[in-house]
């Protein structure tokens, strides 16, 4: 039992119990829903895009602690960032779990500073069935901003 594992578990539970940016924006410019039927997780994202940056974002959903805390952490991480920064962040985050949408494409490794609380999810890679839970909000967001 490493103390880092315990710290990470605490960060995940904190986000699960007191999620950041939860709810739905009244006037979103973009929105979308993602589900992970394997676990019963669902996440709905509403966001406001202004000048190619995420000005505001909220998530609404239900499911396991991993999917909901990952959603909460993601909203913190992407707020104020540009579409291209978010796409890169999403790729880096997914690569932590060995997931690459395009195996040919080089992916910048996640840097801890950018990652923030998301670093706490790295341990999920030891539990392959939970990886889908961790990346659900990212896949949902990347799908929403795909054509942007
Ligand atoms: Zn789940």
Q: What overall geometry do the principal axes of the alpha carbons give?
A: globular
Low-pLDDT windows of residues: none
Helix-residue proportion: 40-55%
Q: Assess the beta-strand content as a share of residues.
A: 15-25%
Number of helices: 5
Mean pLDDT: 92
The secondary structure category is alpha+beta
Please trace the helix and strand order, writing H or E for each element.
HEEEHHHH
What's the gyration radius in Å? 14 Å
Q: Distance between the terminal alpha carbons, to the nearest Å? A: 44 Å
Topology, number of strands: 3
Give the cofactors and ligands: zinc ion
Largest sheet: 3 strands, antiparallel
Q: What's the arrangement of strands in the largest beta sheet? A: 1-2-3
Describe this structure in words.
- The protein has 148 residues and is an alpha+beta fold.
- The chain is built from five helices and three strands; from the N terminus they run αβββαααα.
- The protein has helices at residues 3-17, 65-78, 83-96, 112-115, 128-144, and strands at residues 30-36, 41-50, 53-62.
- A hairpin with a 2-residue loop joins strand 2 and strand 3 (53-62).
- Helix 2 runs parallel beside helix 5 and helix 3 (83-96) runs antiparallel to helix 5 (128-144).
- The chain starts with a helix and ends with a helix.
- Zinc ion is lined by residues 36, 39, 41, 63-64, 66-67, 133.
